[in-house]
Input
Amino acid sequence: MHPVRTGLHPRDTLWKATLQVRGCGAHRSTAGQHTGHIRDAVCITLAKRYVKYSIHFGMATVTESLESGTALLAPSATARRDAELLMMHVTGSSRAELMTHPERELTQRQQEHYQAAIVRRARHEPVQHILGTQDFYGRSFIVNRLVLIPRPETEHLVEAVLAIRPAPRYVLDIGTGSGILAITLALELPDAALTATDISPAALAVAQQNARVLNAERVRFVQSDLFEGLREERFDCIVSNPPYVATDEVLEPQVREYEPATALYAGEDGLAIYRRLIPEAFEHLEAGGYLWLEIGHGQRDALRELLAQGGLVEIGFVDDLLGIPRVAKARKPLE
Output
């Protein structure tokens, strides 16, 4: 005989009350650490108080918890996916394992942590911050509020650099953030020397931890506002995924409220960083060296003009899978 479950439905008023409680936003500033531990503790308390999944003879199953989590996250288009990712994280299971054993009952601790994670996600916190990691080019990178969350479209930038022949030997990543470009290129180009800069010492600490975890400690990290800390150094390839969002552009709450503004916004037209970066890059490129930049939607023509004004040639663009220009390419003329 199945036990009788006595819990509140996730759409009940008390569930909604958990989303209105302030105090789940505390986070640690120590780079590289998962920033949600304090927030988890608060949200677990809320989950215990407001979401009573207890039953007479057991706990909620995987299926029941997924359905409840998905319902609370609706109408988000990613509600089911997010609920599954959080369940995989809490239980340490693969998606296949969850689907194979949907009747499995969660332990009380798992249920509490899952409820806390769902509450955090319902308040627009990115799944990547709750998990503490994000995959990029087949590797898992530590992420938190101190750095931009890696996006799949940035992989086009990596692929473009890897296609250069002969392969570049001295590569610079400007505005490295979590280190995804510098670390990935270091691991894919074992003969190249990689340097990565960022204006934020906290972001650099995250990047350095990622380098240690992924065995890419030969990457040299330099705190610098663009090229300021590099003196007269020159490189045969410079890459950057700089801020390129206009200050008046309305972003989704999970981006606007949780990712660093300094990694997103670049003046009224989103081009402020490019206007500084391109002429400085020219001075730090070897003759014949390449500059590769990620760009925003609708910025192709403006970037073409800025690159040409900066004295660069062989200007071109790489589209993403939707046909949107995503990467700008240019080269310093041969002397």
